[in-house]
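Hey team,

Sharing the RmlC-like cupins superfamily protein run so nobody has to redo it. Sequence (83 residues) first:
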Amino acid sequence: MQEANECQDSLFLMRWSCGPSKFPWSFTATETMYLLEGKVIVQVDGHEGSFTIGAGDLAVFPKGMKVTWDVLEAVNKHYSLEK
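Structure output:
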C-alpha cells in the first residue's frame, strides 16, 4: 500500500468547461476525461463518421490525435494528462 505522499505525483486531475461551440483540437499528451455534464460530437481528422460523448462517459484520446469538437451542450469535465 502506498502512502498518500507517494501517490502525489501519480495523478493530476484538472477541470475544464466550455459552452456550445465548434473547434479543432490536437492532443499534445494522452488525455483521459470524464464528462460530468454536457454533450459533444467528436470527429477524428482523416476518418469518416463521428462519435458522441456525454455526461457520465469516460474517454481516452491518444497523444497526437487531431479532432473537431462540436459542443452541443455546455461541457464540464475532469481530465488527466499522461506524464
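DSSP finds one helix and six strands in the chain.

Ping me if you want the raw files.
A.
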